[in-house]
Design a protein that fits this description.
The complex is a heterodimer of chains A (282) and B (272). Chain A is α/β, with parallel strands linked by helices. Chain A has nine helices and eight strands. In chain A, strands 1, 2, 3, 4, 5, 6, 7 and 8 form an eight-stranded mixed beta sheet that branches. In chain A, strand 6 and strand 7 form a beta hairpin. The radius of gyration of chain A is 18 Å and the shape is globular. By secondary structure, chain B is of the alpha/beta class. In chain B, the strands form three sheets. An eight-stranded mixed beta sheet of chain B has the order 5-6-2-7-1-8-9-12, sandwiched between helices. Chain B has a two-stranded antiparallel ribbon with strand order 3-4. In chain B, helix 2 packs across helix 10 and helix 6 runs parallel beside helix 7. The longest helix of chain B has 19 residues. The chains are: A alpha/beta (282), B alpha/beta (272). At the A-B interface, helix 3, helix 4, helix 5 and helix 7 of A face helix 4, helix 5, helix 6 and helix 8 of B.
């Protein structure tokens, strides 16, 4: 099938693309992607970071970062996608009392809150292509891409379209999540994307009342999978109410509670990612 | 060929009394868990139940029901579903059964998924069932459209939407509600999963994933609120090990919540 496959081409101005993925839904990809992007900026304020929400069907980034509004159109001649309220072009920034967030683009900015995005694969491919290429990212050191769950159209479209510096696989400790995470990792191997490592999320819950630790979703599973896959564990993030509360408020924990152990865990993931990128791309 | 397929489709599902989709805009809220537990609760109540697992990328149900990797056979009327017990009270068909290597990633684009789902929905010889539960992947994509198109010939009683209480979940599920309204799928109700965690040590309840979001969403959209299911490590570990939670922990608050939801569901299916 010579016709139709996109040529892999870097995004102008973007040095490294890091995808945050998992075969499984609901393990914390978006939460991790947001806090990873903010962690990269916190660890080294000289770095510029962008955030692309590629979860076309369930875009969470606008909610997690409390970003709203219409991306601005520039003078370029862009064709519209049906169902969108405006063309994508300028990623969103906003001013607030918190440190500036990464430049962000998401399908969530382009459609109404309640509108489902009922698109077949081909339209999804087209939307992803636009969000990668027809957004004025400027000059970025890192573009963090939040992937949707699964191993289908979106994953293929992104990996075929742009060179990816590395993939971060997120999983909770339970086997059911790890099975899917493993498939996710295998998929990246198939398309020759380096897997930087695993993040074990929701690893343990500490009762705020009595401090008792419960491994609600099992324990250590991600660590074992990392060993099996021959990759490292980039970090371990506990299940903490604060992460969900700050996410619901749209003020991710890395910036709203920078001294908390949860924020520290995410910043450690960010350093580990930077280190692994240097190892894989010397 | 299409006419014969449509006729056959009708036949294969003709003895299935009720078809219920389990949907969510959001991943990881517990669709497969709820599907499995509802099926077990309905069976516990004496019903003949089937589960169709159309999550191609992450088929979880075989593991949750501990059916391993059975061979699937065809008979004159189509694919024979896998039964979890000798009494044939719970039947299962999952894409997981058709994969050579269960650990292999299914990295397919839409059209290929659509074609397989078409076969799946049409060609399974379910026989006589009270309820067929259809577990779907998250979102509103090719798989969902394929399921609806193929089930169109047979009646779909409606959909149950599963959400966790927090804002990122209810936001996505709200989109799913709109999807149902647009495609004419009746919303049987909303279930709020992972609603509160009771510390096994001191019994303090922590709302790790918030609380009440599902109920509010039901009010906001004029849907029925079917109930809340708490976050229960015993449920997670039963599923991990493929054990029947309804047999192991029948006195738990979790079982009582699931049981009550299954009764409400049955009443609503029977009065439709």
């Amino acid at each position: 099938m010579a016709r139709g496959l996109p040529k892999q081409k870097p995004i102008a101005g973007v040095k490294q693309v890091v995808v945050v993925a998992s075969g499984k839904g609901g393990v914390g990809k978006s939460t991790t992607a947001v806090n990873l992007a903010l962690g990269l900026m916190a660890n080294d304020p000289s770095k510029s970071v962008g955030l692309l929400d590629a979860d076309v069907y369930g875009p969470s980034i606008p909610k997690l970062m409390n970003l709203k509004g219409n991306p601005e159109l520039k003078e370029k001649n862009l064709s519209t996608l049906p169902g969108l309220t405006s063309d994508c072009c300028e990623p969103l920034t906003f001013s607030s009392s918190l440190p500036p967030p990464p430049l962000s683009m998401s399908m969530g900015f382009l459609v109404e809150d309640v509108a489902p995005i009922v698109w077949r694969g081909l339209m999804v491919m087209s939307a992803i292509e636009k969000m990668l290429r027809q957004v004025d990212w400027g000059s970025l050191d890192y573009l963090v891409v939040d992937m949707p769950p699964g191993t289908g159209d979106v994953q293929l479209s992104i990996t075929q379209n742009v060179p990816i510096a590395g993939a971060v696989i997120v999983s909770t400790p339970q086997d059911i999540a790890l099975l899917d995470a493993r498939r996710g990792a295998e998929m990246f191997k198939k398309v020759h994307v380096p897997v930087l490592g695993l993040v074990q999320n929701m690893s343990v819950f500490r009762c705020p009342n009595c401090d008792h630790q419960t491994h609600i979703f099992g324990s250590e599973g991600a660590r074992q999978l990392a060993d099996t896959l021959g990759v490292g564990l980039l970090g371990d993030v506990p299940l903490h109410l604060n992460i969900r509360e700050t996410s619901d408020r749209g003020q991710p924990v890395v910036v709203s509670s920078p001294h908390s152990p949860e924020a520290e865990a995410y910043r450690k993931v960010a350093s580990a990612v930077v280190q692994r990128l240097q190892e894989v791309h010397p | 060929m299409a006419k014969r397929d449509a006729a056959n489709n009708g036949q294969r599902l003709a003895q299935v009394r009720h078809v219920v989709l389990i949907l969510s805009g959001k991943g990881g809220v517990g669709k497969s868990t709820i599907t499995t537990e509802l099926a077990l609760a309905l069976r516990h109540a004496g019903k003949k139940v089937g589960i169709l697992d159309v999550d191609l990328c992450g088929p979880s149900i075989p593991r949750m029901l501990n059916v391993g990797r059975p061979d699937v056979h065809q008979c004159d009327s189509g694919w024979v579903p896998v039964y979890t017990d000798a009494q044939k009270s719970l039947a299962l068909m999952s894409i997981g059964f058709l994969l050579e290597d269960p650990d292999e990633a299914v990295v397919w684009r839409g059209p290929k998924k659509t074609a397989l789902i078409g076969q799946f929905v049409s060609d399974v010889a379910w026989g006589e069932l009270d309820v067929l539960l259809v577990d779907t992947p998250p979102g509103t994509s090719d798989e969902h459209l394929a399921v609806l198109e193929n089930l169109k010939k047979h009646r779909v009683d409606g959909a149950i939407l599963v959400t966790t209480p927090q804002a990122v979940s209810t936001g996505d599920v709200r989109r799913e509600i709109t999807f149902c309204k647009k495609t004419g799928v009746r919303i049987l109700g909303i279930i709020e999963n992972m609603s509160g965690f009771v510390c096994p040590h001191c019994s303090e309840c922590s709302n790790i994933f918030s609380k009440g979001g599902g109920e509010e969403l039901a009010k906001l959209t004029g849907s029925v609120f079917l109930g809340s299911v708490p976050l229960d490590p015993q449920l997670s570990s039963s599923l991990e090990e493929g054990k029947d939670f309804t047999q192991l922990f029948p006195d738990s608050a979790t079982f009582s919540a699931i049981s009550s939801i299954s009764q409400t569901l049955l009443r609503s299916l029977q009065t439709a």
